[in-house]
Amino acid sequence: MSGYYQGGSDGRVYTATAVTTAIAGITGIVTLLASSQSEVEILKLDLSLASTSSGTFLPAYVEMFRGSSASTGGSTGAAITPANKNGWITAPASTSTVTGNSTTPNSTANDVRLHAGAFDQGSGLFSWEPCPPPNLDIMQRFHARITPLTTAPAVTVAMTLTFREGGKVPT
User: Fold this and answer.
1) For the chain, what is the mean pLDDT?
2) Per-residue pLDDT for 160 more than 80?
3) DSSP E strands: which ranges in 8-154?
4) pLDDT tens-digit readout, 120-140
5) Which of 40, 19, 43 is nearest to 127 (CA)?
6) CATH class held by domain 12-167
7) Domain residue extents for the chain
8) Nearest partner of 23 among 56, 67, 62, 66, judged by Cα
9) Quick one: pLDDT at residue 152?
10) Predicted TM-score (pTM) of this structure
């Protein structure tokens, strides 16, 4: 036992939400870096494509990775502030860092692919709710990338990442 959070229903649940426009190539849709204070469980990733002017959804491929603590890629991503799902005004802020919409996606050289799939072509939705949820150790990354499978037109994606942070177990 590492002395840190080992999963379960303890810990605070957060959501990080963003809309990314004009995705025309491989894009890091979200990166979560667990802090040095807590481990993280990835509970769910929901993505939604906007339809084209003809009412269809363009095909796109999604990959999720758990990676090293190395700061590789993601440098153009915008900060996303996670919301505490407890809902009260003084609910503790997340200690993890979340970014999104990076045209320089994280390197996958030392990463483990957790899942890969495609958007549902009928609805434009993609949902990943792993059971059991993968754990990120302190200072470890989770990142998801989207690859459009067609060259035109650029797509808009709405993203919600739900995760649980657990602090250090008292010694």
Assistant:
1) 82
2) yes
3) 12-23, 27-33, 38-49, 60-67, 78-80, 83-84, 97-102, 112-118, 125-128, 135-136, 141-148
4) 988 889 999 999 999 999 889
5) 43
6) mainly beta
7) 12-167
8) 62
9) 64
10) 0.86
